Structure formats: C-alpha cells, structure tokens
Amino acid sequence: MHIALDAMGGDRGTEEIVSGAIQAVCRLGYYVTLIGDQAQIEKALKVQLAALKNCDAVEEHTFTGDVRDRISTIHTSQVVEMGESPMDAIRKKKDSSILVAFKQLNEKHVDAVVSAGNSGATLAAALKTIGRIKGISRPGIAGIFPTLKKPLVIMDVGANVDCRANHLYQFAIMASAFSKLLFDIEKPRVGLLSIGEEGGKGNALVKNTHELLLSSGMNYIGNVEGRDTFQGDVDVIVCDGFVGNVCLKLSEGLADAMVAMLREEFRKNLKSKVGYLLTRKAYANLKKRTDYAEYGGAPLLGFNGSAIICHGRSNSRAIMNAIKVAAELARNNMNDHISNLLAKDQTLSANLSNIA
Amino acid sequence: MHIALDAMGGDRGTEEIVSGAIQAVCRLGYYVTLIGDQAQIEKALKVQLAALKNCDAVEEHTFTGDVRDRISTIHTSQVVEMGESPMDAIRKKKDSSILVAFKQLNEKHVDAVVSAGNSGATLAAALKTIGRIKGISRPGIAGIFPTLKKPLVIMDVGANVDCRANHLYQFAIMASAFSKLLFDIEKPRVGLLSIGEEGGKGNALVKNTHELLLSSGMNYIGNVEGRDTFQGDVDVIVCDGFVGNVCLKLSEGLADAMVAMLREEFRKNLKSKVGYLLTRKAYANLKKRTDYAEYGGAPLLGFNGSAIICHGRSNSRAIMNAIKVAAELARNNMNDHISNLLAKDQTLSANLSNIA
C-alpha cells in the first residue's frame, strides 16, 4: 500500500504529519509519499528520524527495515490555506500540495490520499482529478462516531449543505457499504435523522427521503432522533451535510464542555481531587473510546478513489490511523462495492425521477 | 400568580405533576389550577398531601397556609396522547386538558400554562386560543442549554421544521428578549448556527439570514459553530426547528452516553470504584449544572401569553421550575418586550419583503 500524504495540512504543522507517516511505515509497513514544501518536510524528517533511529522504537511495529526506503517526497510550491475559498484555490493553485496529492492518486502512483488541510479544497481537488463514481450525484464525507456499541457512520457531515432526497438516499448506500467494510456489519441498520420517530415527522427533505428509503433494499429502520445516536442501535445515519456537520461539531463541543465542567467540580475540594486521581485511568479509557484519532478522520465517499480528511488538530496517531483506514478502503475496492450496490438497488433509478 | 397546569402530560403520571404543583404553592406561593381527569387528580392530591401535611415539610417554602387553598382543579374528559397528530387532536378533542388550559389563559383566569404533554398539541392549542403576537409570523420553542458560563438560548428547537430567513430573524428577536429577561443579559450576543465561522458559509437559509441579521439592531456576532455552543461566549443561537431539535436531542443523547461509558469504566477495578465514590459530589454538581429540570422546560415564544413545554420525563422539581419561569415571563410582560423590539427594529419591515 502506498499513500499520498498532504504534509502541509493540519494545525500542528508538518512535523506532526511526518511523525504520522513514520508511524504508518513502522507499524503498517506502508509506503508514504509526503507532498509539500521540500525543505520543511526534510527538516521535519530529520528531526523525527534523529529521535527515532529505526522502527524498533515504535510500539507494535511490523516493519524492521530503513524507514527512509518507504518514505518519498514530492515538492510543491503552494498551499491552500484554511480560510480560502476551495473552488478558487483549486482552480488557481495548480501546484498546491492537496491537488498534487490527488493527481498522484489519479495517475495510480498511490492507492489513497490523506489530508488534514482545508476540507472543501480536498473535495474540490478530488472532484477535479479522480471524479465521481458513475451514478453518484453527490459524493460526501462520512463521519465516524463512537457509541456504546459499534461505531456509527453519519453521512453527510459537511460536503453538501443543501440536499435533495436522492442525495440522502445515495449517502445511505455509500455509508452502508463503508460500515459493512470497516466495522464488519453484514446488514448495517440505516436510520434517517429526524425529530420524531414516526415516519411522518420531519422536514420536507426527511419526508421525501423516508419514502425512498422505505422502498429500498437497504436495512432501513426508519427515523432516528439525536437521542438514539450514541446508544449503538443504529449503524448508519443519513442527513444533509449542514445538519451532519452541526452534529459533528456539537458533539465535540459538548464533550469538551462536560470535561471542563467536571474538572471545575473536581478542583473544589481535596476529596474529589483524590477521587479524580484514582479514576484517571477510567477517564483515559473514555477519552480513547471517544477519540476522533481512533479512525483518524472522515472518509470521502463517492469518488473514484480512496481519501480521508483528517481533523485539523490531528496528532500523529490520528494521521497514522487515517492512513490505515484509507489503505483498507483501497485494498478492499470500496468504490466497486458502492457501484455494485448502486446497480443492484433498482429502486433508485425507478424512484429518483418521481421524488427529488 | 396563577398557573394552569396540564395534569395529564408527562411520562411519570399525574402524581409527579401534582407534586410539582404542591412545591410551586409551598415554595413560590403561587395559585395552581390542575386540569385533567378529576378522579386521578384528587387521588394524586390525596396521596401527596397525606405524605406532606403542610408546607413546613417542603425545603425553602415561603407559603405557610393550607396548600389546598391555592390548588384548584378543572375536570376534562379527554387527553391528547403523545403519538397523536397535534392539529387533528386539537380540532377533535374540545375537552382535552391542554386545550382547556389554554382557554383558561385566553380568558385571563390564569397567567400562564405549563404542560409536559404532546408539544405539537401544546403549540396547536396556543395557536387556536391565545394566538400569535401581532407581527410574529412563526412562534417557536426556545431551548435553554447549560454552558460553562451563563445559560444559552437556542431557538427554534422544534416548532418550525422548514423556515425562511425572516422566521430565523424573528427567533433572534424573541430569544434575545427572553435571554435579557431571564438571565439578565443587557445586550444578548446573537449567533447564527452554521458550519463555518465566515459569513459566506452555510446553507441557503443561513446565508439569507446572515444578511438580515447583519443589518439589524441586535448584538449579532455572526456565524457560530456547534463547537462554540457550550463555551458560553454566545447568549442566543438561532436555527430552524429541525436543526435545533436535533441539537437538543443529540446533546441529551451524548451526555447520557458519556455518563454510561464512564460508568462502565469505573466498574472495571476497585481503585476507580473508590475514586468514583470520592467524586460523587462532583458528578452530582455536574448533573445539576446540566439538568433540564433547572429551568423546567422550554418556553413558547411569540404567542399572546406565557407557556412552558416541559420535557416528557419531567420530575416534580422540573414542573415547579417551569411554573416559576412561566410566571416570571407573565409578570414581566415578556410579550410586550417582544412587541416593542419588533416595532423598534425597522430593518425587519424594510428587509423582509426583499429576502424571504
């Protein structure tokens, strides 16, 4: 497996990204091409490899050769900044790291792309290079959420802010294929995010999507509410990218706030301070269970190729895990699964012309 | 202050509601009219008052007379069930507890209505009886969320699933008036829920609303993301009722799931079990800080009268607090404040015809 990694994305700088690349080489044995400013990358590599020497120092390593043999670099002169308009940036910055990464994928020099940079630019670069799977009208971003049982996939979490019913229908197909592949769920239970459990409840988009999903071949369990999200009783939830992105960020914000509030409470007296020390391991475990770094990022689904968008604040572990998931999608021909599901699902072609 | 309380709503039954009414009498000295099945109410009153004797047994009581002097009842023969279609139910069930409660308000026999029953039916009953404030096109439900600082008001959290920009604009006016009154915030900071902080980001609804709010006289701070929600740096967030309801239920679901996960972790060994015992007070405080019961429920804003919708699983404390907030809205003529803000805000009339 060979992954193109955007070395210029992420809030923590190139060194953190490079560290993730080294971990991917040592632990997974993959090849990584770092794309970005050559001088910055070489400097980061030098620092990281000086600290490490060889893979023996990396926990759970499987590769024992020379790390540098599996890391290559491509110099690019431009970067798409976080605030930039994605479409403009991709049009103008022909030598940006993210666009060059996707060109590598399009030319089959690599198997997948991973980036922690501007999400919109990543989508735009994918659209411009590898393009959409035939029959998919709107590729999207699938978010992976922790639950009390198996992880939950919510799609779309930000690529498509204004959607029609057939888009949500296709999200259900794509997210089901992803859930099946990554979490080994034979028939993922698909729920439609709404504000009431009865099929008649919701906004216009939800009502139309409900009709489409009811007549599909998917394991559709009906409307689900935000309250059900984290119980683990649904494997895939579909919604438009506006609602999905709000959910993603709200969850993050609430988890952070709860931890901050608890910390304030712990500090109030000695007894609870001591209690906190005794429960630290439990907190560390909770953090691990709910850590976005566990899966590294959010996969782009619906494109002719594998790509993962990482959280801006990704650490090296998140980058490594994103590389792992991206490779898994490529190795298992995720896109073929989506194409097959699309072809099999006759409802789609029959119904899309009626409702939309 | 005199409150009409729907005795038939809520998942915990009439006894819990009646207990809330008794607390309101003892602690706040208010008059409460319980509306519902007479036999059930009398039975519940008998049980609760037998346990209590007089207000001396109620913590922080201010009333010392006979509780029964301040509790009256009105018998109704019908109930709107949770699953029922609100519009149909209110049309057909002329003698339902929720409709009779609002008729009492409309005829000025009481100052406010509190119900833990079917939210849609509560809205429909309000619309049919007291009606909308002049100039308000869509009344809505304001949700109160805990943050690290002062509570945050999000509107709408479920009354209006498909909205236009002028509706969100009016939510901002109403929620600002509420935030100012209840939390004593001179110029509430108003944020527009979106998926990016720049004004250009969001769906079509958000972009249109952004323009309206920019030219308003409100303390508009621009787009906010779900991540900011719980930090306490914004006082009012506006969004459509679909997104707001998803946020409300997602927050509930996530908080429950985090607590459940922590509990699983605590059970894993003796050390963390002991640690948990030492930090129990901190948890109890966190629970109190994030408890929906603190404000009792969600106020309906935009109607010609005060009403609070309580959570289905409200306990007696939540009912008592809802009565307290409902009375506060009535006593301070909340609706006049909204009318004044509407009249003052010239932007509204000038702009609404252009964007919508």
Structure notes:
Two copies of one chain form a homodimer. Chain A has 356 residues and is of the alpha/beta class. Chain A folds into two domains: 1-136 and 302-333, Isopropylmalate Dehydrogenase (3-Layer(aba) Sandwich), CATH 3.40.718; 143-291, Isopropylmalate Dehydrogenase. In chain A, 48% of the residues lie in helices and 15% in strands. The first copy, chain A, has 14 helices and eleven strands. In chain A, helix 1 crosses helix 12, helix 4 crosses helix 6 and helix 7 (165-183) crosses helix 8. The first copy, chain A, starts with a strand and ends with a helix. Chains A and B meet through helix 9, helix 10 and helix 11 of A and helix 8, helix 9 and helix 10 of B.
Class inferred from helices and paired strands of chain A: alpha/beta
In CATH, the topology of the largest domain in chain A is named Isopropylmalate Dehydrogenase
- Largest interface (C-beta under 8 Å): A-B, 63 and 63 residues
Number of strands of chain A: 11
- From the spread of the alpha carbons, the general shape of chain A counts as globular
Name the strands of the widest sheet of chain A in spatial order. 3-2-1-4-11-10-5-6-9-7-8
Could you give me the name of the CATH homologous superfamily of the largest domain in chain A? Isopropylmalate Dehydrogenase
CATH class of the largest domain in chain A: Alpha Beta
Helix content range of the residues of chain A, please? 40-55%
Sequence stretches where pLDDT stays below 50 over 5 or more residues of chain A: none
Strand content of chain A: 15-25%
Q: Quaternary status of these chains?
A: homodimer
How is the biggest beta sheet of chain A arranged? 11 strands, mixed
Number of domains of chain A: 2
CATH architecture of the largest domain in chain A: 3-Layer(aba) Sandwich
Number of H/I helices of chain A: 14
SSE string of chain A, helices as H and strands as E? EHEHHEHHEHEEHEHEEHHHEEHHH
**Mean pLDDT over the full residue set of chain A:** 91
